Amino acid sequence: MTSLPTAPIPAARPPRVRPDLVLATQRRLARGYVIALSLIAALTIGAGWFLSALVERQSEDAMVINRAGAQRVLSERIAALLADLVHPRNRTSRLDAIEGIDDAVRRLETSHASLVSGPDAPARETSSLHFHYFAGPGALDRTMTDFIARMRTILAAARDNAGPSEEEVAALRAQALGFLPDALQMAVGLHEAASRGRVAYARSVHHTAIGFALGLLALEALFIFWPLSRQVGQLARTLSREASIDPLTGLMNRRAITTALGEALTRGTPVAVIVVDLDHFKEVNDAAGHAAGDALLRAVAARLIECVRPGDIVGRIGGDEFTVFLMGVGDVATARIVADRMRDSLHRPVIHGDRTLRLGATLGVAVAPLDADTPEVILRAADEALIRAKRESRGTIGHASRGDADRITRAAAIIGAFDASCTETGITGISAHLQPIISLRVDPEAGIEVLSFEALARWSHPTLGQISPGEFLPVIGPERTARLGAAVRDDALRILADLRARGLTGARVALNLSAGEVMRPDIALEIEAQVQAAGLSLDAIEIEITEEVLLDRVSDRTLEHLAALRGRGAKLMLDDFGTGTSGLSQLLRLPLDAVKLDKTFVQRLGVDDRAAEIVRATMSLARGLGLEVIAEGVETEQQAAHLRTLDCDAAQGFLFARPMARTALEAWLTTGPGAQRTGAVHRLARSA
The whole model's pTM is what? Predict the structure, then answer.
């Protein structure tokens, strides 16, 4: 076990370049060239003029680099304030958010204009800078101008109490936290490269001057020019380091600590990772203002430094999140001791002026290589431990495990495999399995009547094997889920068209829509195009939307388009009824044909009398609204009998049939249970 000192020595704050240091360097260079002028006038005058101008530019470079770096902080601040703008805790917090965004946008616009305005602007100094700011496919000038314009539009709407939409805010926050910071960071690097290029050129001039100087000039070079040249280079390197420092707390930022972690793990050094999330930061910001919030963050940084040894790393990830790396610590017990010390320190209040600011923190701990051995996975494992701790109780410490790392690695493998499987024509390995939905109005002694088939996604990968929807749907994200949904719909519609053409069924196919798909304004047009491409009409489909998806964030225009599909023959169904958080009022937002009762209630029939009462109440509600009721997850004859007694219309589940691929479904329809009432199925389809 790695020992830790009982009285830790606070780590020093990283040095900051001061303007007076830049000016002092300039004065020293000037004095050196005055001495050289007395010895070899012509040589010294030329070299002195050149390098004096260079040093003056160093001061300008320092301001330019700091200005470009500050823009990233402003974009992150705008992203943080946008959340308060859309979901304010009260009117004061909303006004504070508007004022804070307005101030940040004005500062961002002023800073950007100082970099790009005029023919001699810093953004035009090199071809690389010019390309990045003005000519590239994602030119920073156009991106920044568009971002500022959109932010002013949102501010105008907010001041008029119209309020921006969540889609607009989400898009702007994604830009402010994604492409824009990356583009600004690249700009900082290009400005640094230009500065380093000038320093390198100055060194070349130095060496040339020394080569042509007399013996006395060699002595000058030894005691004046070379030390000052090194000082200029050190200044440029210091400016480069400052681009990796969080300006508010003086801690390393996300990029710097991630790089440091990668280097440590590459060397084989054990590292304990502690992720810290403040519990009451938003409350302090709302109640005491952003100045108090900034003071709180600085206090947290100081306390974290006090809790670790010299050589350990403390960084601020962003917002109210911090990360600590205990270098050389490879066991959980030692990491827990330090984490307990941090938690105790961070649960003491902070005095700011005449206010006492509440403070608390929840921590997540992971140890490399015990829990994971790559930077990305160990950081995510610590995040998972933090999330788990916050879910259980604020102010606690969560611990990662190798299982967390395995799940994260597995999720990354699934995402990578999904992306690699996507082609222009579809997704390799993705197919639709169809599960019959059976009428409960038919006497079971007479056979079964298939009303429709629900299309369910199945994925078979050559190396990962069969991946269940419960495993891949939670990790692939909304954009990939939308592509998956389109591929499954195409396959399901092709299967149904083929079965209908061969006279094997006249049933419909039920198509599920994810939350991301329902939010798209063109989803109804896409579904209609897919149905037509399969050679079917809209009366061949049912569209299933979960209760949780049907929230107010779905635009009325999208709901109107879905309602238009229903008017032309499609059926609309509310899936997993009774498990969502939207409330019964959502039943009024969309004209429905049926609700699907979640299996949670169905599988308690005959076991829990309350389940029967819930199902009976659902039936009564549905009848009053003119809706059919379909029960999901029917697995026993007893459950089916209860549903018939409760006057349920239809059901699906393993009792009747499992989801089947095309070949198995054909066999089920021709020689299995599905063949018993083929004629009834066709009559139902025609009457519908």
Answer: 0.57
